[in-house]
Design goal:
- Helix 12 packs across helix 14.
- The chain has 16 helices and 11 strands.
- 40% of the residues lie in helices and 14% in strands.
- A 7-stranded mixed beta sheet has the order 3-2-1-4-7-6-5, sandwiched between helices. A 4-stranded mixed beta sheet has the order 8-11-10-9.
- The chain is an alpha+beta fold.
- It folds into 2 domains: 198 residues, 3-Layer(aba) Sandwich (L-fuculose-1-phosphate Aldolase), CATH 3.40.225; 138 residues, no CATH class.
- The structure holds zinc ion.
- Zinc ion binds next to loops.
Length: 353
Amino acid sequence: MTLYSELQSNPEFTALRAVSAELGSDPLQVQGPGGNTSIKSGDLMWVKASGTWLSDALSTDLFVPVYHEALTEALAADDGRADDVGPFTCREENPSGLRASIEATVHASMPATVVLHTHCVATIAAAVRTDAPAFVKSKLAGLPYAFIPYAKPGIDLARAIREHAPGGTQILILGNHGLVTCGATVTEAHNLLQEVSARLAPSSLAGSAGIDDAFQDRLSGSGWIPVPHGPTQKIAHNARLLMLADGRTLYPDHLVFLGPGVTIVREGEQLTDVLDRAGQQQFPSKLVIVPGHGVAMPDTATASDIALARALGDVLVRIAPQATVSRLSEDQEAELLDWDAEVYRQSLNKAGR
Ligand SMILES: [Zn+2]
């Protein structure tokens, strides 16, 4: 009997697959291949593979076995090898042959048996606020949580978790990133995830807007389409949402799938010129906002791109009116794209951002 077939007969693994599929099917928790879940069993931690969708957790083998103690030791020693989970994968037991997510480092950093990580939009709306630590404190009183300032996923985020999460922490609010919950069982971790999501959910949302017919007509033949999501369209019609959208990237997956920040058509600019420019940049901007009219993305957008375009609206409508936001720095954007910071800065300047 292989360790994987042994795991498959474990009811907790069955429960994890079900909860993973549920979270993966909820765009308010997981967008595209974002988010990941894990369970530790003996020497191995089974964690979602990179690039796979949690929504497929019931129908596909998504979980990659990782020697979590060796990975944790490497992280504690700041061993650069831990930035690539590959060397810590148990190759003999890897049914999918896939690579573990880089966020396996987050899962290994938490000693609990079950770890769930999502890009919960209510959590991100809290975690991008400049007053995020104090705001979260006011909402999560009594819960075993820690606020972790933004760090690049991998060895840096693992170090930040060691520095900021005392023993017994079961909830991590990851600054400019998302939510992690842990438990001895799937039910315990899932209950905490639901509790935090509910406590951080705002009492009202900033609204939603339909797709403007005239905007759709203007885009026809341009290779761009209106983003098919009311809250994202609302950004074009609400001065405060537009202000929140206008600037550098707020959280990593936005950058990875949609490019840095958004492009806004300014007074006196022609829409066609801006669309051409946005699509041709070294780091193409896949979200173009025309104030008063709508929000567009390329008609070649993948399902993941669309999921992240929806997420921006879902996050921004949840940010309270009085809040200000902190954004990823150019250096943080560059390191996520694995680009030299100076070359990246110059390419952004050239693109007029
Ligand atoms: Zn994440």
